Every structure is written in C-alpha cells, then in structure tokens.
Amino acid sequence: MSHGGKSFGSTLWERVLAVLRPAPRGQRPEPIYEFLEYTPNPLLWPVETWRHRLESAAVLVVSLPSIVLSTVLVCVPFAVFGWWGALTAGTLWLASGALAFLPADDAVLARVAYGFRRPRPQEQAVLAVAWENVTQAAGVDGSDYALWVQDSEDLNAFAAPGGIVCVTTWALHTLDSRQLEGVLAHELGHHLEGKKYTATLARWYSVPVKLIGRVLGFGLTRALAAAEREAEEAPGLALAILLLGGLGSAALVLIPLVAALLLLIGPLAALTLLALLGIAEPLGRARLSQREELRADRVAVDLGYGRECREVHHEWLGEHDDSPLAGYLHWLSTHPPADTRIEAVEARIHEHRHSGK
C-alpha cells in the first residue's frame, strides 16, 4: 500500500504504536454491528482495550519457544568468537525485529511470502463488487485493502499484513455472490481485530526454525515419494527407503540442532525448550487461531452474512475428514471444527433475531 509522503521514521513509529496501542473506540469507523466483545458502555472501554493488548501479546508469548530457538541458532556460528560474539549476534537479531514494521511493498509480500497473484480482469470485477458491498456494510474504506487470488482447489481465504485479502480460485469461481461476500466479510473481521503486526513479528523471529522445518520436511517428502515408487514391486525396499531416508533427514537436521542447544543453554534447558516447541507452542498457536476464526465468523454474521457463512461451513464440513484421528488432530488445527463454527454462527444469528437487529 502507498504511504504517501510520510517519512520512514514516522511510518515505522505508527506501525509500532498500532501493535502496542489499538485505536480508541471513538476513532474507529462506526459499523452497523457490535464488533466482537466491544461494548457501547464507555465505562468498559478500558476492558476492551486491555483485552486487545493482552491477546496481541499472547501471539508473541506462544511463539516464545520458536523465538528463543531461532535466537540460539543465530548465535551458534558466532560462539566461536566467545560469549561476546554470541551475545552480540543475539542482540542484533532481536533488534532486527524492527524490519517487520518496515513499509514494505505489499505486492512483494503477497507474491513471495504467500504465493498470491493479482486477480485477472474478470476475477477483479467479481471481487471488486463483493468487496465494496462488504466494506460498505462494515463502514470501512475498502481502498485500504488489496485483493489477491491464490490458485488452489481448496475452499479457503486469507487475511495477511499490509491489508492483504486473498481468496482461492475455487472459492472465487464456485461460491455464489453472497457466499463470496460472506467469505470476504470473515477476512475483513481478521483485519479489524488488528493483531497482524504481532503475528508478523512472531513469524520474523521464527524464520530460522521455519527454515530447519522446511529442510526436514523436504527430506521426509523425498523419502516418502521414493518409497511410494517402490511400494508395489519391492515393499521391503520401500520400507527401508522410508526408514533410512526419514531417519537420515531427521539426523541431519536434529543432531546439529540438539548439539547447538546443549552447547549454549545446557541439557535441562534444551530439553525444556524442545518440549515447549513440540507440544506447548503448537497447542497455543492453534488455540489462539481458532479463537480468531470464531470472532471473524461473528463479524460476518454481524454484517448480515450469517446464512452464507453457515452454508460455506457446511460445504467445508463435507470436504474434510470426520474420522476419530481427525477429531484428535483438531487440537492442532488453526481452524475450529466446521460443526463448532456452524453452532457458533447459528447462536449469533439467534442473538440477532432476539435483539431485533
């Protein structure tokens, strides 16, 4: 998005303040809905503000294991210069978080970081009408956001920092106009909740860990693909490839990682950090994300898209696994189960009917 004639310093400072201090209610657009837990009672406005601050901070808190591990990984190469070298590297790495607030080119962010593309002319025509209807209903300026498309056969949509709103080609070409507006209203709800910069900061500090995860995932994927090619003719060979390839990839990544942790923070701290990284952080991330999804659904209902939101969730429910294993895995999912979302949507619709909205 364009930042006009603002200086780099003023833009950076405004973005920092956006993280630490949400705008007072009186400065927000006055939508036709009561947004989330916001209350018209002025005596409770401080409660709203602190709820928002705490939940924004929670995004960073649940990411602490990845942030700490990433910092350790950055420090390891510089430990050859002694503790001062490692400490300097760690300090510079933490200070680099300011880069998350730079007025970056949103087009680069959308294309490179997320793999989105600009809508084609026919897609843009459909999206523009739907987005205008949604933003008018919410009482916000639609031009503050940028519409993008992801080539995917999945029913999905995304809200990303920089005012990015994206829908998949499946959603764009399959949903009717009102359902598409309901999906866009949900994504607008994510932006109105306003935690995108803390999420960006957490993602930045987690880059080294993510890179290690990608290397490990690449090795496991290649081993699985090789095993599948040999599965029919030589099942024994396929099993050997899978075991050796999987164990080899894990050893290649995890042994140096564990060694670095033992070197810098000791065995007890290393085991604690790995346990938090593998258990506590995924569960915490999933919990926060699921809460945000339910709130964004609530925004869609409040904007008048309750029926469409329910229809989309029914469509999503029909596409997903309902096995017992899937039921357990929902604890690690970024989205609540579709039936849970449908129940919440119906409950909010019921509230509107009784309140006369």
Written description of the protein model:
This is STE24 endopeptidase. Its EC number is 3.4.24.84. Belongs to the peptidase M48 family. It is an enzyme of class 3 (hydrolase). Keywords: Hydrolase, Membrane, Metal-binding, Metalloprotease, Protease, Transmembrane, Transmembrane helix, Zinc. A hairpin with a 3-residue loop joins β2 and β3. The protein has 14 helices and three strands. It is mainly alpha-helical. Strands 1-3-2 form a three-stranded mixed β-sheet. The longest helix is centred in the C-terminal third of the chain and has 53 residues.
SSE layout and pairing:
Elements: H1 8-20, H2 45-61, H3 64-75, H4 83-95, H5 106-113, H6 121-138, E1 146-150, E2 157-160, E3 164-168, H7 169-174, H8 177-193, H9 196-205, H10 207-230, H11 235-265, H12 267-319, H13 324-329, H14 338-355
Parallel strand pairs: 1-3
Antiparallel strand pairs: 2-3
Helix pairs in contact: 2-9, 3-4, 3-12, 6-8, 8-12, 10-11, 11-12, 12-14
